[in-house]
Amino acid sequence: MLETRSLELLTDALRRLDEGFTGLPAFQADIPGDQRMGAVLAEVAERLHDNFPYFHPLYAGQMLKPPHPVARAAYALATWVNPNNHALDGGRASSALEKEAVALIATMFGWHTHLGHLTSSGTIANLEALWVAGKLHPGKTILASEMAHYTHERISGVLQLPFEKVPADAQGHMDMAALEARLAAGDVGTVVVTMGTTGFGAVDPLPAVLRLKEKYGFRLHADAAYGGYFGLATNLGPEAADAFVHLGEVDSIVIDPHKHGLQPYGCGCVLFDDPAVGALYRHDSPYTYFSSAELHLGEISLECSRAGASAVALWATMRLLPLWPGGEFAQGLEASRRAALAFAQRLGEDDRWEVLCEPELDIVCWAPKSKPELSQAIFDEAARMDLHLALIQVHGRLWLRSVLMKPEHEGWLEDILIRLDRAYVLAAARHF
After folding, report:
1. Distance between CA 139 and CA 188 in Å, rounded?
2. 166 in Cβ contact with 182 (< 8 Å)
3. Would the pTM count as exceeding 0.90?
4. Domain 79-284+292-320 and domain 328-431 have a common topology
5. What whole-number distance in Å separates Cα of residue 227 and Cα of residue 243?
6. Rounded to whole angstroms, how far apart are CA atoms 100 and 309?
7. SS (H, E, C) the chain
8. Domain assignments of the chain as residue spans, ordered by start
9. Considering the domain 79-284+292-320 in this protein, what is its CATH number?
10. 94-149, pLDDT tens digit by residue?
11. For the segment 293-309, what is each residue's pLDDT rounded down to a tens digit?
12. C-alpha distance across the termini of the chain, in Å
């Protein structure tokens, strides 16, 4: 069941990599524990059985998408060199690949002039964006929707910046009337819009926020960690599609290639439309940057050591699957969106279920209509049938939640619905 062809291709690529070092004197590293590695790896494989099958379409729970085989192989290939994309001394080739990969992501938003780099996570990427915002608007309040990721509030605390939540509507969007009322009160430095909330996959009404930006003059950051790639999809609803059209008009963007970008954890990305913010990172370290006059990525990053393998894997994936509307990568996003719409429709046609809101991306939230107390029991019963869902608490009520982010989910909907039906029947029979 697990994909293994990439291992054959990796072996060929390793031979090619080895050829690049044939001019060096012969050398063979001593490997402590060499004779026992097989046994340890077998034990690791056994221990890893205690995981949910995140790679399988019956895993329809949290935001866990398997990396593309080329990403896995390229990441592993790079670890034989183990580059560090802090200074060029630690990763010349991988730093070049990172710059190219980040530029390709920026182009997806219409940015041909930008400053950006990869991070170890979306949390760190958002930390950098809000750190820059705080430097430009010191002491001023950061606003985000109550449905935004909790890390914005936590990050603001770390940065010692005031943070306030803006109410959201029933569909999970930031409430524009509430936002303007707070802006009118003054002392707001930055507004965070979420392009695909963790809970619903809701896309904040960016065009309306941009109009308020013109009026009140705040800095605008887009947390597109989850939904950022959906600007390539052609089957979004009109409001979400319009929001993605305007995404390039914000001041900074965060996107997570380790979500919809088919990358292993952890690979986040932060982008700024104004390269001049790079001056905020300036430091006077005496020991890092003497090998080249070119830009060292550590000069525009709060993190120091970063896995060059992440950049290699991302570059390889985009080389294979370019970020083009209508391309193979975009088609995968569209399949996930179709799966969510079809799943929500089928649930809505069944009198037993209530759908929280129409999915804007690929996340569906629903619950038993007349028996809301069954959500937990259905979740448990479904897991016993190898159908793995998630749960979300909304307005004091527990809802079931599925992130249908694998393109294969579209072809597995019937199987998912059959298992869900059985889980409902069993849960209801045991509960009453």
Report:
1. 9
2. yes
3. yes
4. no
5. 11
6. 14
7. CCCCHHHHHHHHHHHHHHHCCCCCCCCCCCCCCHHHHHHHHHHHHHHCCCCCCCCCCCECCCCCCCCCHHHHHHHHHHHCCCCECCCCCCCHHHHHHHHHHHHHHHHHCCCCCCEEEEECCHHHHHHHHHHHHHHHCCCCEEEEECCCCCHHHHHHHHCCCCEEEECECCCCCECHHHHHHHHHCCCEEEEEEEECCCCCCCECCHHHHHHHHHHHCCEEEEECCCCHHHHHCCCCCHHHHHHHHCHHHCCEEEECCCCCCCCCCCCEEEEECCHHHHHHHCCCCCCCCCCCCCCCHHHHCCCCCCEHHHHHHHHHHHHHCCCCCCCHHHHHHHHHHHHHHHHHHHHHCCCCEEECCCCCCCEEEEEECCCHHHHHHHHHHHHHCCCECEEEEECCEEEEEEECCCHHHHHHHHHHHHHHHHHHHHHHHHHC
8. 79-284+292-320, 328-431
9. 3.40.640.10
10. 999 999 999 999 999 999 999 999 999 999 999 999 999 999 999 999 999 999 99
11. 566 788 888 998 899 99
12. 39
CB 264 within 8 A of CB 71: yes
> Do residues 389 and 60 lie in contact, with contact meaning Cβ atoms separated by under 8 Å?
yes
Identify which of 216, 215, 171 has the alpha carbon closest to the alpha carbon of residue 194.
171
Q: Which fold has domain 328-431?
A: Aspartate Aminotransferase, domain 1 (3.90.1150)
The Cα–Cα gap between 86 and 307 comes to 9
- The two tokens of residue 343 are 């799943």
How confident is the prediction for the chain on average, in pLDDT? 94
CA distance 226 to 377: 28
Tokens of 307: 């896995």
Side-chain half-sphere of 181: how many Cα atoms within 13 Å? Answer: 9
Q: Is the separation of the CB atoms in 163 and 169 below 8 Å?
A: no
